[in-house]
Write a structure and sequence with these properties.
The protein is of the alpha/beta class. 36% of the residues lie in helices and 14% in strands. The protein folds into 2 domains: 140 residues, Rossmann fold (3-Layer(aba) Sandwich), CATH 3.40.50.1370; 154 residues, Aspartate/ornithine carbamoyltransferase (Rossmann fold), CATH 3.40.50.1370. The protein has 9 helices and 9 strands.
Length: 309
């Protein structure tokens, strides 16, 4: 299919074949992402970043991606320094940005904001995370990382551990992995388990996810351990956060039960979910995962803007 002009709002909008097409192009982008090759495929194109929430990897990897492709980025900065504080609506802000740029990358605290923004823009809108909803580009880079490390995802055993309720990365990823035939286990306390809506969607796609509360029950059987941060900022009640903070921490000792080729992933930032001692083991792939955001987002920008190498 032609992706030109397409909004990237939810992983649900794409088939397995379309995801494979994105990942195949991302593979070709790696030498350009590293700076080993130079391209001006998107020379003259402008990307606008509109982030209502903090971001390090997503924002910087999008900016790196457009620059590596010969384009430029516009950063709106913090909302407090824009007309948003004067009462400008999201719809009007999006209309303004489409006049200044060729593609808009939006992160917003409210679920559904990216879909709304896409309705008001004639230029492609890319969802960089909306509340506890979707984060499709993170899902794509996670899939890309697993494919690079494991060859394919059919039948691999993946456990997602930590904050599965508020962690938007795992919602998109669970659905996408099911499309690729992965076997999923959700590990969290009852108060932070995967939302029923996501579990139903996984089952609708043919998956049979397992729900657990203890990581040690499945560690020896895993191909991928996907760790998430307990997101303090999304808890409406601080007391509830304190009950679960630090409940799951991957220590060096725990890896004695793991397969030698099991990989550990994390969307980052981490707080104390993974001991720094784990970083030196061959299991740790979360910094490779962070780099993979660049070639994957380069591929997406090439596709939605119609670039050619």
């Amino acid at each position: 299919m032609s992706f030109k002009g397409t909004d990237i709002v939810s992983i649900r909008d794409f088939s397995r074949e379309q995801i494979d097409e994105i990942l195949d192009l991302a593979d070709k982008m790696i030498p350009y992402a590293r700076g080993d090759k130079i391209t001006k495929a998107l020379d003259g194109k402008i990307l606008s970043c509109l982030f209502f929430e903090p971001s390090t990897r997503t924002r910087m990897s999008f900016e790196t991606a457009i620059n590596r492709l010969g384009g430029r980025s516009l950063d709106m900065g913090t909302p407090s320094m824009t007309s948003i504080v004067k009462g400008e609506t999201l719809a009007d802000t999006i209309r303004m940005l489409e006049a200044y740029s060729d593609v808009i990358v939006l992160r917003h605290p409210h679920e559904g904001a990216a879909r709304l923004a896409a309705r008001f823009s004639q230029k492609p809108v890319i969802n960089a995370g909306d509340g506890a909803g979707q984060h499709p580009t993170q899902t794509l880079l996670d899939l890309f990382t697993m494919r690079k490390q494991k060859g394919n995802m059919d039948g691999i055993k993946v456990a997602m551990v930590g904050d599965l309720k508020y962690g938007r990365t795992v919602h998109s990823l669970a659905e996408a992995l099911t499309m690729f035939g992965a076997e999923l286990t959700f590990i969290a306390p009852p108060s932070l388990q995967m939302p029923k809506e996501t579990i139903k969607q996984v089952e609708k796609l043919g998956g049979k996810p397992k729900v657990k509360s203890k990581l040690e029950e499945v560690m020896s059987d895993l191909d991928v351990l996907y760790v998430t941060r307990i997101q303090k900022e999304r808890f409406p009640d601080l007391a509830e956060y304190q009950k679960v903070a630090g409940m799951y921490r991957v220590e060096l000792d725990a890896l004695r039960e793991a397969k030698s080729n099991m990989i550990i992933m994390h969307p980052l930032p981490r707080v104390d979910e993974i001991s720094p001692e784990v970083d030196a083991t061959p299991h740790a792939k979360y910094f490779d995962q962070a780099f993979n955001g660049v070639p994957v987002r380069m591929a997406l920008l090439m596709l939605v803007l119609g670039g050619e190498l």
